[in-house]
Structures are given as C-alpha cells and as structure tokens.
Amino acid sequence: MSGKTRRPAQEAGLKRANFGDGPGLPTLLLLPQLLILLFFFFIPSLRALTQSVLLSDPFGTTVQFVWFDNFKTLFASSEYRQSIAVTFWFTVAQNVLTLGSALVLAFATDRIVRARSVYRTIILLPYAIAPAIAGILWAFLFNPAVGPLAQMLHRLGIAWDPNLNPTDALILVTLAASWKHICYDYIFLVVGLLAVPVSLMEAAAVDGAGPIRRFVSIALPMLGPTIFFLTVMNFIYGFFETFAIIDAVTKGGPAGATNILVYKVFVDGFVNLDLGSSAAQSVLLMSFALICTLLQFRYFDRKVNYGV
Amino acid sequence: MVERSPVLSMVCHAILIAGALTVCIPLYFAFVAGSLTVAEVQKVPLPWVPGGQFFDNLQLAWSKGNFSRTFTNSIVVALGITAGKIAVSLLSAFAITYFRFRYRMLAFWLIFVSLMLPIEVRIVPTFEAVANAAVPLQWLADALHVADLWGWISGHDVAISLEWNMVNTYPGLILPLIASATATFLFRQFFLTVPDELCEAARLDGASPLHFFWSILLPLSVPNMVALAIILFLFGWNQYLWPLLFTTDKDMATAVIALKGLIPRSDSEPAWNVAMSGALLTMLPPALVVLLLQRWFIKGLIDSSK
After folding, report:
1. Residues of A in contact with B190 (CB under 8 A)
2. Which residues pair with A64 in a beta bridge?
C-alpha cells in the first residue's frame, strides 16, 4: 500500500500533489476522528455483536455463552414477528405516501414559473421540525378528545381513537412520519428534474407528447437512480429515525400496533433489561442498515467514483 | 417550460397550494391551540380562530419546560456536534487526501465503515460506553496485567479500576453523535476537486502542510462548511433518542426532550395549549435557520446525503 513502487498518482483518493511519506502528522490529524470512532462506534458495535450471543441476567452478575439462542428465541416469539410485520407495513406505507406526494409536488413545481420559491420554502419547512415534534403535532390533530381532525372524523361517524384502535394508531404515526419526510424526497426530485435536458423534452413535445406523457416516459426514467436512492433513504428513515415519533406519540401501543423494531430494541434493552435479546435485535438491525448503505452506494457510485 | 398550457399551470398551482396547506395546517392548529385557555382548548369543536392567551401560554410553556435551561443545553449540544464533527472531519479528510503513509487505506476504510450503522441500532452498548468510557482502557490494563506488574515492581497488591462516567455531561451528549463519518466524506470529495497546482505552489513557496491547510484549503472549504453546518445544527437540535437516555438529570435535558414532558397524558389535565406553545418554541430556532439560510440549507442537504 505504501507506494514506493507505484506512482503516487495511482493511489486511490490521494492528491497527486501531496505531502509525501511522513506518518507522524497524518496520524496526529486522524487521531481525534479515530478515537471518537473507536470509543463510540467500534467498541459499542463489537459489544452488540458479543452480547447477542450471551445470556446475562439484568444485574449482570452471571453471563453465559449461548451461541445463537437469543436469535432463535427472538424468531420464535410472536411479539418479534409482529414487530417485523408492523415495521414492514409502516415503512412501506410511509415510503409510498412520501415518494408519491413528493413526485406529484416536484412535477408541479417543475411546471410553474411564478411563486416557485415560495412553495418550495413552505414545503421544505418540515425538515426543520424534529420527528418528535411532528409526532406531537399530529397527535394533537388526531387526539380523540380535543383534536380538530379527530372531531371531524367523529362527525362523519368514524369512531377514531388511536389510543384504543391499533389501525388508527398505525395510520397516525404513518401520517406524521410522512408529513415530516416529504420535503426530503421533494427537494431531491426537484433538483433531479432540473437535470433533465430541455432539448429532450422539446423533441418529445414536437413529436406530440403532452406534459404528463413526457414526465412519465422521459423524466421519470431519468430520475430512476434518484428514486432508488430516495427509496433506500426512506427505509432508513422509517426504520431508525421514526423512533422519536413512536416514543412521543404511541409508545409502541396499543397492543404492540406501532412497536417498530428500533423501538423494541430500546424497550427490551432499557426497560425490560433483556440485554441479550436487545443486542440480538441490534445485530439484525445492523445487518439491515448495512444492506441499505450498500444499496445507497450503488446509487452514487455512478456519480462519484470511489476508486479515485 | 416547453409549451404554454394555462390549464395545467392552474392544476399545478392547485397541487402546490394543497401541499403547502398540508404543511401549514398542523402548524396553524398548533398556533390556535397555543393561544387558547385550557377550557377553550377542550371545546368541541375546536375554535378556528386564535384566542388571546398566546403570550401567556408561551410564558407558561417556557417555565414548565425548564426552557431557559434546556434551550441552552440544546444550543450547546447542537453547536458542539456541528463544530466537533466539522473539525475532526476536516482534519481527517486532509490527512487521507494529502498525505501518503503506510496505513492510509486502513484509516480510510475504518472511517468508511462507520457510515453504515446509525446510532439507533447500537444504543445499549453505546450507552454502556458512555456510562464508563474507561472500560476499554480497563480491558487493556487487565490484558497487559498492568496491576500485577505494578504489584511486582512496587511490592504492593493493587487493583486498577478505571472509571469515566459521561452520563449527564455535555461530552456524553455530543461525542457519540460525532462518531459518524459523513462529513469526512463530504470534505474528502471536495478536497479531491481542489486543483493540484495550489498545493504545488504552496510547497514551492516552502509552506508547511498545516500552513497550506490553514491559509488555502480552509478558506476554500467555507461554502461546504456553512452548508454542512446548517444540516448538522438541525440534526443536533432535533436529536431525540440519545438525549432521552440522559434525562436522569432534568437539567441536562434538551428542549425536544423537555417538550415531551409537556404532552398531556390520558390521566392528567389536557393542557394541549401549553404543549402546543412549547412545540412552537422548540421548532422556532431550526425553522428560522431553514427559512433564513434556504439556499445553503438545500446545498447542505444534497451534499451531505451523497
């Protein structure tokens, strides 16, 4: 790896004009980053891996090596399987809602000239709002006793109550999560649409393709990589960042209806003190995050060559 | 735009107005609820026009949420994460792009791997790491039998037990959230686009690496730093899970966590007016950042996701 035999320019990601071979200064420069990663990333991740194959009582007095028992127990428990199903439906619904609305809004933004930046500013606003706060806002709107939207549903004869009805609770957190995240997909799609060549659109228009037809058959395929990237990011968001919404709004209830995987890790680890199971769940989530990240790199590998 | 089509333009405006309304309606109702009294906020149907209690509720929320303390905490944490992450990332990106040394690729991959796991999946072990950050040093001491060695040298029996508890401290809140390398890769990408001639010229002039870093590379990086700083500030201010684990001491809570305490539970008085005032207060600083620094914010968003 030290490039005595190779020309320095061939070494990946190194500037052709560089400061040569001395290891002292770069070590010093890297030290803060590597120390923080060691203490708060590598050691905890390794600990999660080792804990997942150990069984310890809540007080940590006895620890036993149990191979993959924690994982077996996990998959045998109906609670965990329910959590998987809930997470799946929650993230898929959130993804469809977010991406669908963002696509429509981005298309509309691309078509208009006047007031474009005003709309964009307003639609981007939820990015500034913490997921927990987004959850609290929607919990208020849909609160069965005081919420204006819940009152409207009641007047329509719908017995809306997310505190008792599992489906209502899931709908509530899905709406809150999507509301918070549409802005993210939206801005990427707006930027992506700017990159579609006008000449292509004009040629299609001359051939008689209308605006919607052009969007579907030209812009959408060109946005393909962006949409793929956003889908992956939406899954990461749904899996991990919606923790705050769940905790602030439903606490996983009622009857586990909103007990998504990342919330269950927290409850099992910090409330039930079942460290082995919590760690096993962490490891499974880590694998998921890993897959997502690799998929994500497939997307921007096309734009950014990491070999360089 | 390729052709004029007034009807479609109208439809598009209608779609965008609907989108903007969807964003604004929850905020408007938060404002309305935040301006009512407890009795009014429980009325069915909820009034559509604001009442006269807005500033009283703000004051009440401010004191009930311990906001004079928790806002300070939020600012410290958000700025700490922003400054810390940018600082360590700039240094390490500089190291891996501008120096040739033996373990350069190893360092690159160590940093790269950390992009893959969000903190949410390793909260329990990370909490343990923060509860006693000295544990790894303890292992090292145990593994090397430092205690035995010292006992043998000094003739006393000693037990080494190291402890460094960061729970309820600012470093404990900040450092684990710095441990991800997104910013490093952003700066690395940027440094790779900086013309080689600048560095060559600096070397011809006899500038030291640090001098080059400080007076040439850093000024060039300012636009990227600003864009990233906005995203990191929002990230830090809006953190939830990690500060939640630290609320053992109420004075160390952040504003978002304190706000959670204002939400009425089913068995308490439904003081949604105070809760909504608190929500408006807590979202104000990040919302202002997004509104005022729109252009930079979008750049940061797009950059930091790549």
Report:
1. none
2. A55
Task: Tally A–B CB contacts below 8 A.
Answer: 358
What is the rounded distance in angstroms from the CA atom of residue A92 to the CA atom of residue B15? Answer: 24
Using 50, 70 and 90 to split pLDDT, how confident is the model at A300?
low
> If you search the block for the tokens 């399987």, which residue do you land on?
A81
Contact call for residues A142 and A160 (beta carbons, < 8 A): yes
Lowest model confidence (mean pLDDT) among A131-135, A212-216, A296-300, B181-185: A296-300
Which residue's entry shows tokens 């639609």? A123
Cα–Cα distance, A151 to A173 (Å, whole number): 18
Contacts of A208 (CB under 8 A, 6+ apart): none
Flag if A39 and B133 touch (Cβ within 8 Å). Answer: yes
Structure tokens at A72: 């077996």
Give the pLDDT confidence score for residue A5 in this predicted structure. Answer: 46
| Min distance A73 CA to chain B CA atoms (Å) | 19
Q: Which of A27, A151, A294 sits opposite B44 (nearest CB)?
A: A151
Please name every residue paired with A156 in a beta bridge, in sequence order, or none if there are none.
Answer: none
- Which residue among A101, A111, A141 places its CB closest to the CB of B9? A111
User: pLDDT value at position B249?
Assistant: 83
Give CA–CA dist A21/A7, Å, rounded.
13
Q: Is the pLDDT of residue A305 over 60?
A: no
Q: Output the six-digit token pair for A132.
A: 């927990």
Whole-prediction pTM value? 0.88
What is the predicted pLDDT for the residue at B135? Answer: 67
